[in-house]
Amino acid sequence: MNTVFKIYRFDPESGRNPRYQYFEIDVTKGQTVLDALIEIKAHKDGSLVFRRSCRSGICGSCAMQINGLNKLACETQVEDLKSKTVTIDPLPGFKPIKDLAVDMEPFYDKLRAVLPYLINPDSPPTDKERIQSPEEFKMIELATSCILCGGCTSSCPSFWADKAYLGPAALVKAYRYVFDTRDRGYSDRSGVVNNKHGLWRCHTIMNCNDACPKHIFPTEGISLLKRKVVEEKY
Amino acid sequence: MHYKWKTGMWAFVMHRVTGLALTVYLIMHINVVSSLHDPGSFNKTMAFLGQPLFRVLELGLLAAVIYHGLNGVRVFLIDFCNRTKNHAAIFWILAATGSVIFIVGAYPLLHHAGIF
Ligand code: FES
Fold first, then answer.
1. How far is B69 from chain A (nearest CA, A)?
2. Which of A155, A186, B61, B94 is the most buried (most CB within 10 A)?
3. Superfamily of A2-102 according to CATH
4. Where does it reside (chain B) (predicted)?
5. Contact A175, A224 (CB under 8 A)
6. Are the beta carbons of A207 and B1 separated by less than 8 Å?
7. Helices (H) and strands (E) in chain B, counts
8. Which of A202, A197, A193 is nearest to A229 (CA)?
9. Strand partners, A98
């Protein structure tokens, strides 16, 4: 099936404004958007820039805006989009570096801010792991599957309006540790999430839930964190 | 910046717009009511507010109050009852509920104005 790919092109060194470039390719059954981009780069225009690594939904490098919604290019089959023209843009809300590659550094800064590691001053029992029951793990299981693609944070209007907002990905990471029964770091994290650039910027607009390729539902984690913060206080 | 508008985005934007509109209305309402000191000015103002334009605005007010109130219930369900996954279904159920309330509320308004 012949499909037109309308792709955002931007090269800061050329001094030209961003523009769309059109490529037509014959898409085969099961071909993903990432496959199509690789084909375009290999056969039509070698200067096209995009990120990818695992091409199987693990590394989180290939998140981009496909037909107006954030998705992983490697997990999106062209056929499923049911459109003759597929529009591809870089993740919104981040600074474009070149073509579909954006500057993810602010995203990683937010992640570091919520202290994304186990905090527990007590040493673990000798020769044993810190025990957690399957029920206790269930509480954070989904949140642990985040691949840091940035699709959720980039889809969030609150983040577009306030670049200091932690965003759904960092808040999900905070949730993942705060609700981990082995963690004792709540007091270190509460100040980071409980402020006007934290939890309370979430206005339940829900774009992040649709954007997440791992179906984590960040809003649910954020709501639970909001309640935890209120409960701890009163 | 462009992004496809989905249910959650519409719900949020409409909540903001109706919230602002209701605030403006409330200020005007209090202002007008506080200026009615004697039967003369009362009758004059009421006659003025009886014009068809204000009937239409009244319907808008009714719609805004219903929307803002019911979406408030939706946000409550999302934040306090873990209903994130059902947010769109809740939106449509409340939209149907709101429409019924609107019809029930609009009828006496229009009837009083002599339209029905
Ligand atoms: S290439 Fe790794 S997630 Fe798509």
1. 16
2. A155
3. Beta-grasp domain (3.10.20.30)
4. Membrane
5. yes
6. no
7. 4, 0
8. A193
9. A101
Q: What is the pLDDT of residues A35-62, one digit of tens each?
A: 999 999 999 999 999 999 999 999 999 9
CA distance A204 to A79: 31
Mutation for testing the A interface, residue in B79, B80, B81, B94 having most A CBs under 10 Å = B79
Q: Where are the domains of chain A?
A: 2-102, 105-233
Q: Which residues of B touch A (CB under 8 A)?
A: 1-4, 6-9, 12, 75, 78-80, 82, 84-85, 87-88
Over the stretch A178-193, which tens digit does the pLDDT of each residue have?
999 999 999 999 999 9
* Residue to probe by mutation, ligand 1, list A32, A33, A38, A62, most atoms within 8 Å of CB: A62
pTM of the predicted model, to two decimals? 0.92
Question: What kind of fold does domain A105-233 have according to CATH?
Answer: Fumarate Reductase Iron-sulfur Protein; Chain B, domain 2 (1.10.1060)
List pLDDT tens digits, range A165-176. 999 999 999 999
Q: Residue A225 has which token pair?
A: 């964190």
**DSSP characters over A125-178:** PTTSPPP--HHHHHHHHHHHT-----HHHHT-HHHHH-TTS-HHHHHHHHHHHH
How many helices (DSSP H) and strands (DSSP E) are in chain A?
10, 7
**Domain residue ranges in chain B:** 7-112
User: CB under 6 Å to ligand 1: residues?
Assistant: A 52-55, 57-62, 72, 74
CATH number for B7-112: choose from 3.40.50.1100, 3.40.50.300, 3.40.50.720, 1.20.1300.10: 1.20.1300.10
Q: Spell out where chain A has E strands.
A: 2-9, 19-26, 63-66, 69-72, 85-89, 96-98, 101-102
Quick check: A155 and A92 in contact, CB under 8 A?
A: yes
Chain A residues whose beta carbon lies within 8 Å of the beta carbon of residue B86:
none
Residue found by looking up tokens 């590394």 in the block: A59
In this complex, the residue of B79, B80, B87 whose CB is nearest that of residue A206 is B87
